[in-house]
Amino acid sequence: MTNPTAIPETASPQVEFISLSHLNPSTELNPVPSRGIDLPYFKKYVRALEESGYDYTLLPYGSNSADSFVLASAVGQLTERLRPIVALRPNTTFPLVAAQKLATLDQLTEGRAVVHLISGGNDAEQARQGDYLPKDRRYARTSEFIDLLRRAWTETSPFSHEGEFYKFDEFGPGFAPYGSTIPISIGGQSDAAFGVGGAKADIFSFWGEPLADLRKEIDRVNGIAAAAGRTDRPRIWVTFRPIIARTDELAWRKAFDYAARIEQTFNAGPARAFLKGAPQNVGSQRALAFAAKSEVYDRALWTRTAAATGGLGASTALVGSPETVAAAILDYVDQGASLVSIRGYDTLADAVDYGRHVLPLVRQEIAHRAATGQRGALQDAHPGALAPGFDPATLAGAR
């Protein structure tokens, strides 16, 4: 007989939280045309993340967005503990220069820097900044890029290199990080992404997927890491867009309203015209396939928000009361996730609400497990969409 209090063997013993820093008040619910930084808002947002107990914040990158390195440096000076994650496309920065920039950030923040490498999932977006490599070669370039980052941080003598994508003579020693190295994250669902990330990344990033499907993907990453001779395994990062309210019923009513507004924003915006046909990246293809199969999975995973945006970016939701969403996050921790990114649709208000109502519940359960060696009662007490007779679809259109 299964022990209901047993901690799954796959469970991570720790969990850290990531959010995304927003530059101005514009949201998918209430878009405000802007290409700029609202500095008072940005400062307020970043400080709210620190005060709310997040561990990291992602500084995203796009061809028409603010520079992620400069933003990360600002985050580092506006906070004392929050770790900035620089989203970086290898085509935009020579690897030795990237190593120098990241090491500088790491020194300025006393060891808080992290880098998330984006190989590029859309040919048209890559071409906007002069990158015409096909996708499989982009991941090969990322692999070489990772090797050079690490050598630049650790070599104590000058070295030369001639590879498929980069060539230089007698570089170094480079500028060193604050500590021994800087964590490198990779995401993606293509075979090439798994190959590079499993073999070389410190962190492998996923969008929110049904639990059983994510477990298979984690096993795949770990198998590649083992085949590459690694004695460690990449940390698993999973991303959600939670929609919470006082009760599960109120949260689902809110979610259906949000999905309609998000779809309206998406259809009226430039992304709809830019994304012609099916998405090129496998992550978006998987998100749309899950949405086509079912809107609700497991305790709280909802795919209508992904369908509403054509699978663009991380867009699957967790819907429910704070207790149900915390329990759902723990379900993913039980599958092996140790980094959980949660960002809302009402960006600043949601970040504060998550910090006040969700993060403490998850951390309380992790502390209970560490102290007792057993699961607590939260997951059993809050089944969410798994509760007998509960059908979220009946709440569509309800107010």
UniProtKB/TrEMBL annotation:
<feature type="domain" description="Luciferase-like">
    <location>
        <begin position="35"/>
        <end position="338"/>
    </location>
</feature>
<dbReference type="InterPro" id="IPR036661">
    <property type="entry name" value="Luciferase-like_sf"/>
</dbReference>
<keyword id="KW-0285">Flavoprotein</keyword>
<dbReference type="GO" id="GO:0016705">
    <property type="term" value="F:oxidoreductase activity, acting on paired donors, with incorporation or reduction of molecular oxygen"/>
</dbReference>
<keyword id="KW-0503">Monooxygenase</keyword>
<dbReference type="InterPro" id="IPR011251">
    <property type="entry name" value="Luciferase-like_dom"/>
</dbReference>
<dbReference type="InterPro" id="IPR050172">
    <property type="entry name" value="SsuD_RutA_monooxygenase"/>
</dbReference>
<dbReference type="Pfam" id="PF00296">
    <property type="entry name" value="Bac_luciferase"/>
</dbReference>
<keyword id="KW-0288">FMN</keyword>
<feature type="region of interest" description="Disordered">
    <location>
        <begin position="373"/>
        <end position="399"/>
    </location>
</feature>
<dbReference type="GO" id="GO:0004497">
    <property type="term" value="F:monooxygenase activity"/>
</dbReference>
<keyword id="KW-0560">Oxidoreductase</keyword>
<protein>
    <submittedName>
        <fullName>Alkanesulfonate monooxygenase</fullName>
        <ecNumber>1.14.14.-</ecNumber>
    </submittedName>
</protein>
